[in-house]
Amino acid sequence: MSNPDVLIVGAGPVGLNLGLCLLKQGLSFRIIDKKSGPTTSSNAVGVNCRTMEVWESLGFIDEAIKRGLKVHGTSLYSDSELLNQVKFDLIESKHDFMLALPQAHTEKLLLEELAKNGITVDWEHELTSINQSPEGVTVAIKHNEKDDEFSYRWVVGCDGYRSSVRDLSGLTRACHDLPLHFLMVDAEVSGEISTSTVNILFHDKGMIFMIPMRDSIRVVVEISTDEEYKHLKTCEPDIFREIVAKRYPKINIGRVDWSSAFYIHECLADNYRNGRIFITGDASHTHSPMGGQGMNTGIQDTWNLAWKLGQVKRGEAADTFLDSYSLERRAIGHDVLERSGKLTTMATTTNPILKRLRNFGIHHLADWDIVRSKVANGLSQSNICYENSPLVKHDQVRKSGQLKYPEYQGNKWTLLALNDSKDQLPSYVQIVSVKQLPLHAHYCLIRPDGYTAMYANDITEILEYFRKNHFNLK
Ligand SMILES: Cc1cc2nc3c(=O)[nH]c(=O)nc-3n(C[C@H](O)[C@H](O)[C@H](O)COP(=O)(O)OP(=O)(O)OC[C@H]3O[C@@H](n4cnc5c(N)ncnc54)[C@H](O)[C@@H]3O)c2cc1C
Questions:
Q1: 1 pLDDT above the threshold of 60
Q2: What's the mean per-residue pLDDT of the chain?
Q3: Quick one: pLDDT at residue 464?
Q4: pLDDT recorded at residue 42
Q5: CA-based nearest residue to 139, from 160, 118, 154
Q6: Are 226 and 166 members of one domain?
Q7: CB of 186 closer than 8 Å to CB of 39
Q8: Do you know which InterPro entries this protein is assigned to (predicted)?
């Protein structure tokens, strides 16, 4: 039996999601993970609307929504006083909310979806070496104290912050640690707290952050500059209760289901591709959890990579086309790092002038639709349109206001054409007749991941686009 096309290293949320995306593209794959089984603890809680649009295409969004809790906005407080509530209703998606679904539940759901297709993870299998040649990638996988060699066409590292795939394949990254230190619990919380919004409380001793979930509430406290508690390396429930009681006596922390402590590292890989080897998720970018972007960004990495691998595997595009994965997704990783870094600085600042400016801005500006829309669409990642990519005619796309068409995403390109077009196009393009298009154009080309590529008035412009981007036109 021949080896699968792709080896996925790491069965966290990103590796599991990649498996489902590859299934949609008709690629065969194997998933390994060095752990003994699925995660039971949960870092990520917030699933954003763009991830939900991907899960809709993969066929399990209704189940995900059933298992999670819809969160409709953010309530911001300063020293116990409500500054403002920012609703998510201006998110440009039918999923105009954040889904609170603990990471362990997300991973369970993804594992179940894979199992429906007969796919299981090879647990306790660790990648220990990797070498590539023009023909393929040879890896050593350790299982039961024994190393075996296997070859694959492509290897994708979804193996997290300490990625072996990244380090063993010579991909580099730039990192720095932020001087910030947090404790967190999933707990029963009573008192004055909104259970339909995220709650952010700014406080002189450090912020408190709360996300409602179906069965409990995620509470995070910052202790970096709190002289009394900043030395703590682990999170003891009683001490956690004490910190919260001192800073925000209007709530009470009851039963604690899980507790942890974390620091923030900011890292970005210099390239997400080295030949036949790719990295995604935390292996390529890690940053502050403020804004809930890490897992969501990783899931979007896999959505971007899978259709590109599919086209190259089917001979529809040249191998060079795969460079666009790193080009497009690294730019997004860079933006996410910058945005989450700014949000963290804003939330944790100890500078009295910045604090006053922040609170003034939230109190007075956060009601403006233009501000709400920018914040909500930025955090939900629905404002992405790959503006610096050669695969997107960015000026047209921004002008049209139609950055994506999630209803047409899948494994083919879509050409929206006025009236019944009989144009001859490659087999990977489906034609859909429409009555009207933005910019008075005759055609709109949509990528398999749902993003708008370009508008045109003549079919030769579309063919030229494919030729220029290394596609096979037959
Ligand atoms: C406190 C906190 C809160 C967060 N909240 C959010 C949030 O609300 N929303 C959000 O989007 N993100 C959030 N994040 C970030 C999110 O948790 C991560 O981005 C996400 O877990 C990354 O997933 P991953 O699959 O890339 O990596 P991981 O989850 O780290 O999975 C990597 C897997 O690879 C395996 N592995 C490693 N090396 C090897 C090897 N050599 N061979 C085989 N297997 C290997 C590991 O065992 C592991 O299972 C949060 C993070 C923290 C710390």
A1: no
A2: 93
A3: 95
A4: 82
A5: 154
A6: no
A7: no
A8: FAD-bd (IPR002938), FAD/NAD-bd_sf (IPR036188), RIFMO-like (IPR050641)
Kindly state whether residues 296 and 231 are assigned to the same domain.
no
Residue with tokens 């604090």: 355
Domain that holds residue 438: 394-468
pLDDT category, 184, cuts 50, 70, 90?
very high
Number of domains the chain contains: 3
Q: CB under 6 Å to ligand 1: residues?
A: 9-15, 32-35, 43-46, 103, 126-127, 158-160, 164, 184, 262, 281-282, 289, 292-296, 298
d(CA 397, CA 400): 5
Kindly state whether residue 319 falls inside one of the protein's structural domains: yes
CATH number at residue 204: 3.30.9.10
Nearest-atom number in ligand 1 for the CA of 32 is 43
Contact 46, 99 (CB under 8 A): yes
CA distances from 20 to 30, 46, 279 (A): 12, 20, 17
Nearest CA to ligand 1 atom 5: 44
Ligand 1 geometric centre to CA of 331 (Å): 20
* Domain assignment of residue 151, yes or no: yes
* Element of type H or E holding 434: strand 429-434
**Spacing, Cα 107 to ligand 1 middle (Å):** 11
Q: What is the pLDDT of residues 241-261, one digit of tens each?
A: 999 999 999 999 999 999 999
CB atoms under 10 Å from CB of 39, counted, come to 17
- Asked if the structure places residue 132 within a domain, the reply is yes
Please tell me the distance from the alpha carbon of residue 325 to that of residue 305, in angstroms, as a whole number: 6
How far apart CA 67 and CA 167 sit, in angstroms, is: 36
Place of tokens 């003891």: 236
CA atoms within 13 Å, Cβ hemisphere of 86: 26
Amino acid at 397: V
Atom 37, ligand 1: which residue's CA is nearest?
A: 159
How large is the average pLDDT for residues 313-333? 97
Mark whether 20 and 109 lie in a shared domain.
Answer: yes
Residue with tokens 């993003």: 451
pLDDT in tens, 102-140: 999 999 999 999 999 999 999 999 999 999 999 999 999
Residues 153 and 195 in one domain: no
Other beta carbons within 10 angstroms of residue 247's beta carbon come to: 20
140-156 burial, b at 16+ Cβ within 10 Å, e below that, comes to ebbeeeeeeebbbbbbb
The amino acid occupying position 313 is K
- β-bridge mates for residue 185, sequence order: 219, 259
